[in-house]
Amino acid sequence: MTQSSPAPLLQSDDRLGTQRGAPAAGTxxxxxxxxxxxKGYGPNIRVLKGLSIDMQPGExxxxxxxxxxxxxxxxxxxxxxxxxDEGSIRFAGKPYIEASPAGRRTTIDTVVRxxxxxxxxxxxxxxxxxxxxxxxxxxxxxxxxxxxxxxxxARALLARFGLEAKAEAYPNHLSGGQKQRVAIxxxxxxxxxxxxxxxxxxxxxxxxxxxxEQVILQLAxxxxxxxxxxxxxxxxxxxxxxxxxxAGGVVVEDGPPEQVLGSPREERTREFIERVFHIR
Length: 280
Description:
Layout: E1 32-41, E2 45-55, E3 60-64, H1 71-78, E4 86-91, E5 94-99, E6 106-108, H2 110-113, E7 116-119, H3 131-141, H4 147-160, H5 176-188, E8 194-198, H6 206-221, E9 226-229, H7 233-239, E10 242-247, E11 250-255, H8 257-260, H9 267-277
Helix pairs in contact: 3-4, 3-5, 5-6
């Protein structure tokens, strides 16, 4: 299959500054405030155990950690896809998600939820729609956008990601890397204020990973706030303004990438980094 790639965005020796896009301390209210988040599945499986995080506008937060540590569950909660047992989330200073005192239900502000975009590991494209219609469906149906306006925006996004020739193609005619780039474009069609990426390269062949990471790097250059769950430590190091290591449903370590990935303070973090990088 012939591969199309996005236009070059970074020279091979370019790097995003680790603080680029992150405000100085005390200059802005948090974009996201997660407080005392608890989430379980049934009485015996507790995934999140009192997790609390603040995220500033413009930050690129990469969440790493062992499987089962709560990383993907955190993203699904942030997207409003999971009920929570306890805790609350504020977005841009407004109440967004809150558990009732008894944990019987979760209140979710759907207006706030529409400001958050998420890209999943397995694309979630509609197979019966061509790529262009995958992109314009939500803006037209959810936001009531004029079809011609939405179509023009969709074509511009596809061109930006090197996919203009695929507008009329169906998902089963695209490579994994192309599908994931389409999924990112589809999320951007709703003009999100925050992007969530859940292991978006883990299902791809190694040669396709770079083209998807390049698209995310482009968004980072434009100061799009994002939370990224990944096992790719090279990618984490080069895109993050901040790295959070989660294990056992709590935040174990939180700091700049050079500190968390290079000189972790916590023994649990050091063990994980050694195992991932195969170092001693």
